[in-house]
């Protein structure tokens, strides 16, 4: 994996986050992917299950602003630090850490940590 591959994946993730389109979401994952929505929970396993689980917790389009930086990458693993701002009332801010294991241009494992800022 190269940094541009990771950037491309995060851009596709953000597109899916905004659209909630099942095709955009599915395009992120390998068939046998695992999505750890929290590192201390069992993952959602399989592309179809991930698409369904995403729909259950989807944010509305335009509800968030997101910025990120790549912290590191290599051997198929990328580390991303993100900042999410919910533009709702009341607004909310979160810090994110993502560990993404890519196979070509799709994630086969994605673990996210998110912490609400006080």
Automatic annotation (TrEMBL):
Domain SnoaL-like residue range list: 10-93
TM helices/strands, residue ranges: none
InterPro entries: NTF2-like_dom_sf, SnoaL-like
Protein name: Nuclear transport factor 2 family protein
Organism: Kribbella antibiotica
Lineage of the organism: Bacteria, Bacillati, Actinomycetota, Actinomycetes, Propionibacteriales
